[in-house]
Amino acid sequence: MTVKSNKGVILKAYPKGIPKLDENFELTHRTIDIECLNLKENEFILRNLYLSIDPYVRVTLQDPTSIIMKYSKGVLTGQVVNGLGVSEVVKTNNPNYKVGDLVYGPIGWEEYSYIKSDDASVSSFMLVNKELLKDTPLSYHASFLKFGGLTSYASLIDIGKPKEGETIYISTAAGLTGQLVGQIAKIKGLRVVGSTGSDEKVDFLLNELKFDAAFNYKKVDLDKALSEYCPNGIDIYYDNVGGKTLEVALEHCNRFARVVACGMISQYHVTNPEERYGVKNLTNIVLKSMIFQGFVVTDYFGKDIEKEFDKDIIEWIKSGKIIYKETVIDGVENIAKTFVDMLNGKNTGKYIVKIADY
């Protein structure tokens, strides 16, 4: 039987604020006839296995008239939402892939993805080294060993330039990026301080990841907390939040501090530009001779640092220097809920959705 179920999640309406499950998303029941599809040159069909649940997807769900969409390709209402994940090639007319290959790249929130020759993503896929599956589960390759891990490693090393004895402060420290940045910083000999949104996550950072200090930002005055936990100031601020958190952290940054601007999740849900938080003390960047740099992970593709990451991360996993915590949720029907839960801070570690068995 070549006609397969191809359930998918479409964008029902553009979110205002944090997305709502029933208001903004819809599960559609479709089919795909794999055998009867005539593939053009370079096209292929994927059976999606594991999907990474990432905050950046929220940016792609903006109304096309939003100013932020000048810099990012968005999802139109009625279209399947897109993300990143691991898939199996089930049909191909692309010389780079054969049936049975495992690939990582941009896929839909759906059971099967048809990658067409005119898709910008057609050249964005990378093969998964099946030899690594002897030491790591396939779910790790949906983010941790790919874009997610490279994001943490490359930005910290390249922009943060960590030095032994320095202090790093990480916001949203219990997510994938934060937990990896913190552990890599520990390996490099830094004092690691993290903030997160629940006491359970604080316990995870302190007792499992061995951060030097961690606190629940919902229960403290941030300015006082940073004075207490970063008594010698902040040398690297790894920012995932932006807004008020960034403003307070800048006051505690030392001369020649580095700010790694990875994300600004506090602002992703603000659709009216006039309602976005205006950081009031950016003069600190000048007066303290600081480096403040943003990035996208694709900046590091094909660079030596990508090869260094591939080598170091496997070595650290095998030696137990890196602990990676993920929560795997089953079923395409649970993708949207898992995404909304992630944006509401319900995850500890990384959320992955398992779409199919391998």
From TrEMBL:
Keyword Oxidoreductase included in the entry's annotation: yes
Sample GO molecular function, one term: oxidoreductase activity, acting on the CH-CH group of donors, NAD or NADP as acceptor
Q: Which InterPro entries match?
A: ADH-like_C (IPR013149), ADH_N_2 (IPR041694), GroES-like_sf (IPR011032), MDR_fam (IPR045010), NAD(P)-bd_dom_sf (IPR036291)
Domain Alcohol dehydrogenase-like C-terminal: where? Answer: 178-309
Protein name per its UniProtKB record: NAD(P)-binding protein
Name its species.
Rhizophagus irregularis (strain DAOM 197198w) (Glomus intraradices)
Q: Which residues form the Oxidoreductase N-terminal domain?
A: 8-118
Among Pfam families, the record links this protein to: ADH_N_2 (PF16884), ADH_zinc_N (PF00107)
Which classification does the entry list for the species? Answer: Eukaryota, Fungi, Fungi incertae sedis, Mucoromycota, Glomeromycotina
Keywords (A to Z) from UniProt:
Oxidoreductase
